[in-house]
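Example with several molecule types.
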Amino acid sequence: MIFKILRFDAQKDERPHFQVYGHTSKPHETVLEALKDIRDQQDPSLSFRYSCREAVCGSCGMVINGRIALACRTQVGELEGDEAVIEPLPNLEIQKDLIVDLSPFWEAYRKVEPYLQATGEFPEKGHRVAEKDMEEISQFITCILCACCYSACPVATRDRRYVGPAALAKLRRFELDPRDERPFSALERFDGPEGVWGCDTVFRCNDVCPKDVRPADGIEGLRRTIVSGKIKRLFRRRP
Amino acid sequence: MLEHDLLIVGGGLAGLSAALGADPGLKVAVISKVHPLRSHSVAAQGGINAALGNRPDCADDTWDKHAFDTIKGSDYLADQDATELLCQRAIPTIYELDHWGAPFSRLADGKIAQRPFGGAGFPRTCYAADRTGHILLHTLYEQAVRREVTFYDEWLVTDIVVRDRRLAGLIAYDLAGGEIIPLRAKAVIFATGGYGRIYHRSTNAYINLGGGIGMAYRAGIPLKDMEFVQFHPTTLFGKNILMTEGARGEGGYLVNAQGRRFMEDYAPRAMELAPRDIVARSIQTEVDKGNGFENEYVHLDLRHLGREKIVQRLPGIRDICIHFAGLDPVDQPIPIQPAQHYSMGGIDVDATCASAVEGFFAAGECACVSVHGANRLGGNSLLESIVFGRIAGESASRYLRGGPPEAGGDRETAETARALTARIRSVHEREAGENVFQLLNKLKRLMSDTAGIFRDAATLKRGLDELVELREAYRRVFIYGSCGRYCQEMVVLVEFEHMMEVAEVILLGALRREETRGSHYRTDFPKRDDASWLKHTIVTRSDKGPAITYRDLQAGRYAPEERKY
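Resulting structure tokens for the full complex:
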């Protein structure tokens, strides 16, 4: 198996280039395991992010044979052909080799106020929350903030003001949570091209999500909530 | 020089909980070698214990029953006062997490759901499907964002600077900037996690190298009970990805190659839900007797639970099996084997998380209070991280309110940073040398071969001998790439030096403790010996190498009994 890996070291390279490594893969080996093996045995200078190796920490998003995916969740044996082309996540600045600068992603995340807003002290015996309410948010809470959707999103690519699919899915998660008390204005702040109306509905985010979150469902849901909230307010204002 | 009142090292559950527990008036920052959401806490699956009594079949549960189970599970080596504190604080802790938005699974009446776990008298493990660590880490991080906590993401702390037994500062390597940075602080909390990746087979994230524990030891802070290493019974064969105890809590069976539920031979009452030390040994014994598959593993069989229960309660497990082993547990049994999972031992701290160095605190897996003694119960580590993380934040704040005198160690701090820079440069300037990643792989083999589930004097001595050779090889270590930004060779090179200390203390503690207790099973001393060994191992670094002393347990309510399950 041939691994063609994009390399870039700002301290010595003018531009990124591909480096080729031969690698004999083992049964059930993941791309992350292969990268680690190449680093350990052939080239200790190869840099990439990793942590849990079980698709829950969100560190190892990258482009594998043209597809955005987590390296730890991609089996080498399932790749087509005998060549693996490995590149960093697109639309983000390369820091070194397969490591990109995620600051735009984290800034967008912070913009949606990604935390439950409940007032006062906790109820003595805890909140009572219906099982079905928890099920409604369950697809969104599986998000691991790996930024695969953000880097796949054509809108986030061309317009840095757009907060992107992961942040909006997170907002939807809190909006749906019966314990959350955020005011309507906190949603309305995303009633424009930087928020829910920025989405092109081409569903690239749903396609690439390694955790089946379907961020576009969240954006769609927020659109409905915002529109109906505005209509309700219109009626309330009438005498 | 960058200056803070309090620096918290580690952005997992213990570190974030410490940040949330610290006095908001203080200048606090969290330093983490990865983005906090990449911390290993995220991988915890099964749940977090608290005697809420939410189910009809656990209405009689109380925090002191939780404490008793924990103490018995610890093989009576836990400090009972601290364990009671943990179990008492568990209950408001869960409700606070709920109020912060933790999406726990629910019962039909809307209360937080609870499931049975190993060694527990009642179903008291609260959970969010099998992603409990994930949802708790995200929840605490969200609250830290809300409070505008300062984070230094992707900074590796390399050294602790101590002057006259008082904390003076830290040195860190900023990966994105490529710089070595001295930091002044009046207090520090270490929440750096465990050392799982010192072992070849481990459930832990690749980043769990245990550098924080070794670093504290090198700074003169003693380590406690390091010979107690938890091996999780059920990890995916070959990959060693955790298959939560919740799978057995939901009713999963352990089955050998003859198709027998062999736990009836080892723990006839508790069966699959005996504590982890017992189940892990039982599995290894079956495999060693030739009752395993391919002489390597046994089966965790969930098929009788049915598709609906598996999909609803164990979706993460199912996903891992499908994507990492190519099998669906709805239709096929899961091949499992034990692997290193958790460290009961750690940096020696008291129940306020304070250590022997003034201003230095520790919490979570890197610390040893001790509430887990010789064997931790499932569902107690998330709890410990959050409860003692908070306590560490409170204790450090109290210490700072007292206006501790300045350590005045700026010169030492700057000097330590310069020395590290010089050392890295000299390593880099070598023509050739040892590849640190290969040294790491050797260390892992060494520990798995000599300090595993079963040990004896011969294996442990061999481990210590081989460690001397590894130290020699490390003196010739070499950096192949450039050592500026994101130099991961440098990260492992720095951590490896600390890891060798951790390995030595584990091996030495295990060699000296001539009894079997909890996770520490000596085939040459297979009985528990309360008369000689009901005490903590304390190892302090000295010029002449590790110095071992022992500390008696605090007397508690429960006298040691034989553990039968």
